[in-house]
Each structure stands twice: as structure tokens, then as C-alpha cells.
């Protein structure tokens, strides 16, 4: 991905002056490079910057490793497709106006867990966020292809539960302030992502048509096509009488960073990143998405009930400590029932989204291939199923499972 023309040494120098409240900042060394390769990120332009700089009243040379995230400013196709979702303004608003308040609620109950990275600077004009690179604090990304084991997953669930619970309390105390975030992947304003979601779903069906004993599932998928976006929209609507939250919206392996114990190599901490698709709705949607994109197969197949319970413990405990009262804090039984009501998003995440996330072929792996319907884009979508043995093996488990749940049936 190309580095934005405006992202220069002079620009970063001005940012550091504002950050330090010190006009004497002078950069002495500046190194810049793209943060991701092709096919590893579809949500914007990510750039890594390493700077050394002096300040007049500080005799020690300072260094910072920064991560800059900005919109697809030179890609008219991506800009047009993303416009209805307003993802960049939303993420900047969340970092500016929401996450600091969630941190305050954590401090209110004496909880010192760091849930999020802190933004050094928010540039609304250029739709850019600048962070201190978490890698300098020892945080790294896990391998998206290998996926996550129990220790990694529990760390994420603890942080996610606390984010969800504090957001519910913030919304309660601020008279619905978070309910304006109503543009998740499925929303009432646009179905722009239909070309991505439905055509991936149909590419899966065409793959299944050619497999022994799989035509039954292909036919069911084809029958769902006209109703797919409406089913997703109903799933994303906040549920009255339940605890709704500011959901992260896109929890998966590449949207979290882990810190490891240097001796045992075990994960000891995690930070949630990337809030472009955050929305007001059910916490179960984050769990379905996470479980069906990022878990190792033994966990996804055999341990989801235990993981829902683990999340529920942290979620309800935090709600209780903060004296949440707008809706009943759900019992484990009630929470499991709600999880079932939202399980369509598990189908969507496992069958439509995970093939993109586990794709290892960089050919045409870009935002336009996801969102377009020309020959190049449709060939890319077909390869997600035709050329990936991991996805092919997963479908052998997922499709019978979702069929037994009734999720391949259409309620007209």
C-alpha cells in the first residue's frame, strides 16, 4: 500500500509539538514504511514511522515508534464504498470521545486493566489516527493463519467483557450517547457490503456444488441469497430488554495485540485495536465473530459453551460493580438464549468472513476485489474457497452444524 504524500517529517514534527506541548521539538531521524503487505489489511492505509528527535529543555534524545492509520484517500472506489459506513470518522470519534470515558469507569472500580491503545493525535481533516506503536511495549500480533488457543482467547474475552460492560454503563449514565453508533456491517442506512457478503456466500455455494455430498448445502445457500442482508440487519438491531453495548464490531486475530512472557512464551496481556466498525448492539455478535474467525478448530468445535461462560462471568461482574440497572443483568441461561438468537452472525463470520481472513494467496487481495463484481473480483472470491484446504476442511464441520441449528433455513 502506498504511503500518503502528506505524511512527511514536517507533519510528524508538528504532531509531536502538539503532543509534548513543546514548540522546540526537532526531528533528527525519520524512517517510514508501509505496515502491512497485500491481503493482510482491508480497513485503510497503515504506516509505521520511527523518529528520533530533540527538545530544547530535554538533554536526552527521544525516540518514538508510531503507527499511522488513515483512509483510502487516493482510492476513489474504496472511498465511495466505505462512505455510507463512515468508518474513519467513527473510529476517530470513539478514540476521542468514548474510550477515555471507558477508562475512567475502569478506574472508578479500581480496575487497572488497559483495554485499548491510546491515540497520540486525531486528524479529522485527513481522517487519520496516530498511535504510539505498541510493538515498542512488547506487543505483537499473533499468527492469523495458526489462530488462537485457549490462553490467548481468554485474555481477549476478559478485556472484551470489560469494554462491553463499561460501554453499557456509560450509555446508561449519558442518556443513550452511544446509540448513535448504528452503522455496523449490517445497518439500516446501506447494504453496500452486499457485493462482498452475498457474493462470497454464493462463491461458497458454487464450490460446494462440485463436492461429493455437498449439493444439499449449496442449494440451501442459493435459496438464502435474496434474504441474506435482511437477516443480517435483523441480527444487528439492538435487542430491547437486553443489555446492549458498544460492540467492537470486528474482533479477530489481526485486531488485537499480545504481550508474551519472555521466559515461558505464554501470552500475559492483550490490547484491543481497530474500532472502525464499532456499533451499538448485542455483545453476542462480537463473540460469534471472534469465535468463528480466530479460534483454533478444537476450541471452535468443542469449547464455545465454556468460553461464553467465561465471558459472561467477567461481563456480569463488571456490570454489577458499576451498578448497571437499565436492564436485568443476564443470568448464564438468559445469556445463552440470547447467543442463540444472534447465531446467524456465527454463520456469516465462519462461512463468509473467515475465508478472507485465512487467505494466503496475495493475488488480487485488495479492497476492490472484496467489494466489486467484475471478473477479477469474482475470481478472487472463488479462490477463497477453491484454493484453501483449511477453509474446505472447516466447511465440512460448519455447514452440518449450522444446518442442525436451522440457520440455513429461510423464514419468510
TrEMBL record:
Residue intervals passing through the bilayer: none
Q: Report the domain of life of the source organism.
A: Eukaryota
* Key words, A-Z: Kinase, Transferase
**CHK kinase-like domain spans which residues?**
129-321
Select a single GO molecular function from the record's annotations and give it. Answer: kinase activity
Q: Which InterPro entries match?
A: CHK_kinase-like, EcKL, Kinase-like_dom_sf
Name any one Pfam family assigned in the record: EcKL
In Swiss-Prot or TrEMBL terms, this protein is called: Ecdysteroid kinase
Q: Which organism is it from?
A: Musca domestica (House fly)
Q: What broad taxonomic lineage does this protein's source fall under?
A: Eukaryota, Metazoa, Ecdysozoa, Arthropoda, Hexapoda
